Each structure stands twice: as structure tokens, then as C-alpha cells.
Amino acid sequence: MNNQNNGHQAGNGKKTLTPVSKLGEFGLINHLTHNLKLQNASSIKGIGDDAAVIDNRGKLTIVTTDMLVEGIHFDFMYTPMMHLGYKSVVVNLSDIYAMNATPKQITMAVAISSRFTVEAMEEFYAGVEKACNYYKVDLVGGDTTSSRKGMIICVTALGEAQPADIVYRNTAQEHDYICVSGDLGGAYLGLQILEREKKLYLEDPDIQPDLETNAYVVGRQLKPEARNDIADILKSLGIKPTAMIDVSDGLSSDLLHICTQSGLGCRIFEENIPMHPQSVEAAQMFNLPPLTCALNGGEDYELLFTVKPSDIEKLEGIHGIAVIGRMTPAAEGAKLFTTGGQTHRLVAQGWQHL
Amino acid sequence: MNNQNNGHQAGNGKKTLTPVSKLGEFGLINHLTHNLKLQNASSIKGIGDDAAVIDNRGKLTIVTTDMLVEGIHFDFMYTPMMHLGYKSVVVNLSDIYAMNATPKQITMAVAISSRFTVEAMEEFYAGVEKACNYYKVDLVGGDTTSSRKGMIICVTALGEAQPADIVYRNTAQEHDYICVSGDLGGAYLGLQILEREKKLYLEDPDIQPDLETNAYVVGRQLKPEARNDIADILKSLGIKPTAMIDVSDGLSSDLLHICTQSGLGCRIFEENIPMHPQSVEAAQMFNLPPLTCALNGGEDYELLFTVKPSDIEKLEGIHGIAVIGRMTPAAEGAKLFTTGGQTHRLVAQGWQHL
Predict the structure, then answer these.
(1) Which chain A residues touch B63 with a CB distance below 8 Å?
(2) Which among B56, B73, B109 has the least Cβ separation from residue A67?
(3) Span A177-189, mean pLDDT?
(4) What is the pLDDT of residue B50?
(5) Among chain B residues, CA nearest to A260
(6) Residue-by-residue DSSP string for B36-77
(7) Which CATH number belongs to the domain containing residue B161 in this structure?
(8) A111 confidence band (pLDDT: 50, 70, 90)
(9) What is the span of the domain harbouring residue A266?
């Protein structure tokens, strides 16, 4: 637990903290961004003018926006500032990768109330910078402003792609195989652990949180990564997905987007849905069916995609990509076949027995 | 005054209102955006996938982001939802025009608390659509999410420009003339009127607001327009500005951005600073020096730009563009000469006597 319900202290809390008001809006932006170096040739002009300038040299521009709100999407009781900065970037890049494109730039708008300190914002931007460096994207613009309450973050990510490379959600074909990267449900279970530890902490602030035995799932929640490797893996195998989406709302919701937009149904098989052993363990600890966590957990930021039947052999033996089912005619609906032999209808949140 | 401190009622309030929760996030986005038509050939893919896709056909991409927060940037006591939607778009487009570029797309992220109704959001998006239609930009993506309190709006605008057309802030030259479009101070004085009427209303809700005698300045505050005409006017005169910025923070602040970033000073003359008669009148009513309102008011969304000395003759007799001063060496500082013969130093907020 961070013992900083309203302080957002940097480090051990012994440093002198600086109210943001001391720097003002321009001062704060300048303070936080003056060391930023642009990494991409396409970033012609970054922070410092009315707008940023980008040169994609004939490629298409891909753009996506996400907003994160304190108390809705994150809780400072267990979210360190640096992780929050990192995650704010990652969740947006994930959308760019889900288009089979390469992220190149982000803009970052942040509203904060007067309780935030310059040091807390430094930590936040350190996380933003870490993500930018890791994923090789440039922070090229933004806005820092006041809020009446809490912190609100809005990131827009821009990427580029050759027209022929882009993969949409609405282009899956009947008989296509459904694949997913990595494993599912972990981020949701990490959140359950953090919420439990928060509750225990609020009851007894002297208690030490036990996060280490669940390090994997907690990490999935606090420091997710975007799948920047899948496009290269598939390209090296000579596969272009027929449709793709990132798993942000949960496998059910996101697969249903592909189904609805492609005008198809699907069948997926419980036994093929990838889960980490620690996710299964954590689910059992909370008396939750692991499958439900995988289907509806969300925030896994894995890639869910479909491939042509003729491509499926190429995926054999490829570690970290699971083939979980196939696309079917719309009339067949979206169905889940359990290991126990039952058939369920997939619904956007949760699943119903047929 | 809107008699809707927390209801955000659409129309006359007699309609049945629908809580946003009834539609859910996807339902609301779909409900609000399903009629949107893409207008620009460069908008390859709009709302409905992980990200939007844009084809600028070799031109550069210009991008800017702004966040508007209820209680900080707008007040529902006097801001109709439709105007808010319109203004949210306009303030971002203004930044694109300030780069001498043409806006083409926007993304819109909105966080709202549970007190907002579907009808209120329809009004808001009607305003967004009006602005999109008027300025010929496409809403290509976004995010709608919950807030714990109030409404937060984050707009990212994308534009395009030929590389040679882009005008930055840091490229003014010594001796260049300083020009500004339209008139200044009006938006700030409109805000003072609205704040006064709000106060009167809170003291006596039966009182009828008197906004009509100040329609111009109130309009400047509630329904600003971005100067989409200046680029064409200058082009037709054969002028490319040497530096440009939009007046969002106030003439002083924004001119100082040009000075600092260009490594220059400036001298401007009170007698040349354009104000609308109603702005002067309103300033006098509030016992404010009109000049202060013009220098520091902000939110006028006019364009402030510099032109080469050899271009200045071309501007003679051009209505709506005022030549207010010249760029000087940095050592001379940024100075204002008043009609009374005094010299002041321009500072970012307000001005100090020398």
C-alpha cells in the first residue's frame, strides 16, 4: 500500500514537496518535459507550439484516445504514480498495435487538483517517459490543467502503417481461426488482490500487504504491457490477421465486437483459453470461476485476432499464441463450449447458460 | 441562466430524461455517433475500431490536445450543453489554424458523472456536430467514461499542411510587424457578465438575466469561432506569416511566447490594439481598464502573427487585421506604449509599470 491517501509523496516522503501552484501551468509543463528528446524521424515538432507536426512519409496515420479517471480507472491507494504514467501510455499503444500499426507519438492531457505535488507529477512523467522509451514513441504535445477533484488523464496515441498492413475488426471471415496472445484474466485478479489488501489496510494501517505471492497478477494490473511483438511474429510467419482487437474489456466483449462488426458468429473452447497458473490460483482463492475471469476480466491488453484457415498450420508450436476457436455464420451465434461439455452463449459482460 | 444546476435538462425540461446508465458506455457512444458521416477523403476509418485511420497523402499531420474541466473551464449555470460541445471543438481547431494548417479530424473523450442524462449528452454532441460541419472536420474516435464528479472533455484535433506552409512560434524576425485578427478582450468581458448574472440569479432565482445588451461579448465567451479565414486572406495577399499563435491565454502571454521562442523583444502600441465598442463599454461598466482586458483576457481565439516588413504594405486597407507593433532585439524587452505616453513591460499575466 502507498501510505499517501492524499499526499502523493515521492520516495520515502522525507523530501520537501512542492505544490504545483508554485510552478503554474506553463512552468509545470516545461519542468516535466524539458528533457524529452524526440526519437522518431516522423516527429517533426514536439511540445512547444500550438500543435505538433508529424511526417508519416506517405504512410497512413492511426489515432486513438483514452481517458483514465481517478476513482474510476485507478485508485491511488495502490497505484504508484510511476506505474500510472506507464499504464496510461500502454493502454493507448495497445489500440495502435491492435490495428497492426506502429505507434510513433502520443499527446498527454492531465487535470490535477491542488493536492498534487510537483514531485508526484515528476514520478508520473517518469513513468510516461519509461513507456515512451520502451515503446519508442514521442510525447509531442499535451495539456496540463486543474481539476476540482482528483486526477484525469487523457492520452491520444498516433501510429503509422502501410495501407495494406492495417487490420480492422470487421473483416473476419467464416471458418477463420480465433487466436489470442498471452494469457487472460490476470489483470482482473490482480485488481481483486489489490482491493483486498486496500480493505485490510484501511481496517489496520499497520498491516503489511502481501503482494509478492501474487506478483504476476498484481503486475498484470499495475504494469501492463502492450503486445508490440505480435505483429513481427505474425509477419515472420507470413500471416496477416483477418481481424484484430485488443483485449481491454474482456475476451467476451472484445470477441463479440469482431463477431458483430464482421457479421459472424463464433465458437470458442474453454480448454483452449489461456490462463496463467497464478491467475487460476487467485481465482480459486476468491471463489471465482477462473473461466469467468478470463472471459470478462478485461485490461489484459492481449491481442485477439483471426487468421485464415490456410494460415493455421504456421502457428503450430508457436509459444504464446493460443488458438481458441473459429468464426461461424451469424445464425449460429457466439458460443462457448466448456470442458464439462456444456454450451453457453457469450454475452458482452458475463455469459448465460443456453 | 439555465435553471438546471444539476439536471442538464434538454429543451424545456418537459421531456422524459434518460439516465446515461440505461444505455451503458457502448450504447451511449453508438447512440450519439451513429449518424455521423465522414466528410474528409483523408478520414479512411472513423469511430468503431481500436483506432481511426487517416490518409494525409504526403502532407504533414498536425496534432493538438486540450482538456476542459467543469468548474475550471466552464460552468453549467450559464453554459448550454450545445455551446459547450461547439466550443470544445473550436478551441482545438484554433490551435491547428495557428499552425497555418487545415483541421481535418478530431477525437473526443468525455467523462461524465451519473447526474448527466442521455438528452444532455445529445445536446452536447449536437454542438460537436455543428462545429464539425461548420469547420468540415470529422469526429473519428473517442472515449466516453465515468467521472466521480462533473464533466471533463478532452479533444484532440488533427490537421494537415504542406511542409512549406506551416508557421511556428519561434520564427519571428527582428523588425517584423506584429498583427492580430479581429478584436480582443471580448471573451473575458463576456465571462464577467455571465458571472455577474449568475450571482444575481443565485440571490434571486426569479430575476431575468440581462444578456442581450451584451450579446456580442457574451457570444465571444459562449460561442467562440476559430479563425479559419485568416490563412486564405493572407495567402490571397501573398503573405506567409513569419510566426503565429492563437490568442487563448491573452495577448500578453501569447505574444511573449513568440518573443521568447524567437529570441526577440517587441513593442506594441495601445492605440492599435483592436477592441469591440461593446468590450470597451463592458470594461468600463466593471471599472476595468479596457486595455487590461485586451492584454490578459484570453479565450479570444484570434490569430496573432508576425509578417516581414516587405509584406506590410499588402495589409493596408485589409479589414479585420490590426498591425499592433514590431519585433525588436531581445535586449529591448517586450514593451507596451500607452496612448498616454507611458511605457510598460509586458508580463505573462498583467503588465508592470517600468
Answers:
(1) 51-52, 54, 63, 105, 107, 140-141, 156, 158
(2) B109
(3) 97
(4) 83
(5) B48
(6) -----TTEEE-BTBSSEEE--TTSEEEEEEEEEEBTTTB-TT
(7) 3.30.1330.10
(8) very high
(9) 177-353
